[in-house]
User: Fold this.
Amino acid sequence: QTVVTQEPSFSVSPGGTVTLTCGLSSGSVSTSYYPSWNQQTPGQAPRTLIYSTNTRSSGVPDRFSGSILGNKAALTITGAQADDESDYYCVLYMGSGISVFGGGTKLSVL
Amino acid sequence: QVQLVESGGGVVQPGRSLRLSCAASGFTFSSYGMHWVRQAPGKGLEWVAVMSYDGSNKYYADSVKGRFTISRDNSKNTLYLQMNSLRAEDTAVYYCAKMAYYYDSSGYSGMDVWGQGTTVTVSS
Assistant:
């Protein structure tokens, strides 16, 4: 069974840039997996930032961008702010109607 | 504005059933497929099920296949999740989420709007 992999944790300085990645335990992520990125702060519902690799959801600032970097999907946050401190989950479409979430990355801004 | 409101959660004994609802507003519900996603306490997000905009296609995670049934009533702008034979490991906050693309029949476009969630606790 293929597992979607994410860094368990990451830290960034205020104003800095960070790139989170989303990979597969076997194989490479491509646009055919339609990677999406979701942000969740404790006690809150998730919020979609990016879908279909690089399309920002309504109201999402352009500090957030999605791409494919090498064999992984990537979420880049530029000009990190204190309220970017959240959990970030990628989700990949595996085909045949099945989607799989990664384990999430806990981002600290400090 | 687009809004999704889940309801129907509660405390239920193992082996019993529960039906969750997700009331949609602010968009043409009948043009969008819908997902159910859950999150166990202290854990990450887990995709549960998806249904196409017209109800013709439905898919499930292996962990719930054969026990959960996703359905929708486009005349009521409501999505449902019928959960049978509940287990302790089904304890979670359950979210409904709207697909990003209209007329997406399989859920490839991911989610773009989420509800606030409803809590299901399976315990004796």
Q: What stands out?
A: Chain A touches chain B through 27 residues (CB under 8 Å).
